[in-house]
Write a structure and sequence with these properties.
The chain has 52 residues and is an alpha+beta fold. Helices cover 25% and strands 42% of the residues.
Length: 52
């Protein structure tokens, strides 16, 4: 199952900070949208499972 990490950009420290880590894509997209509505730059990174 793919993991999703939502990060926001901290303009003071000029770094990306993780806000949420989840396996639910809809939850990640909702968090990103909520952050962007507040005027914060946000992104989602997807991490697929490793093949063994």
């Amino acid at each position: 199952m793919t993991s999703y990490v939502v990060s926001v950009y901290d303009t003071k420290e000029k770094v990306w900070k993780t806000v949420l880590a989840t396996k639910d894509k809809a939850e990640a997209e909702a968090m990103k949208l909520a952050m962007e509505q507040d005027g914060v730059k946000a992104k989602i990174e997807a991490f697929p499972p490793k093949k063994r």
